[in-house]
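Researcher: Please predict.
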Amino acid sequence: MEVASGGPLAAYVSYREMWTEYTLKLQTSTTSELKKVQEAWLERLTKFVSTYPKAEDTPEALLQLGMVSEFLDKEIEAKKWYAKLGHDFADKIQGPKGTGGSAPPGDGRQGAQAGRAAAERPRHRVRCRPNARQGRDGLLLGEQQPGIHGRVR
């Protein structure tokens, strides 16, 4: 099977290969080598974005470029990548992150509004037994503690 250079299949294969190599290098690197691994990841992502500017994985690559640039204290570069993400891919799930938003898709809110909306949602307690009784800490036995997911008392 021949892959057309610059086509969607080539972009798909290229991004998966890059991501796999980066993940393996992260797992096998020492702490002192981590900066070099991330620098190489930045270079590969930059090349990917320039080679495949409209590929399906380009928004994710731009998001990775912004985040890794931040990790490496390259704030000016990070802002550039985030701005490109927000401008070129505003309609994609990663788009709002490029403009500073953090709203879930379809919510229509961005930034601080999304944070307030999440904080205003009621917390639900799950009663595991119909005749649950109150324990020493004030929780009904059989209820979930707030902030501890999946742990039932």
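Model: Residues 8-104 form a domain with the Serine Threonine Protein Phosphatase 5, Tetratricopeptide repeat fold (CATH 1.25.40.10).
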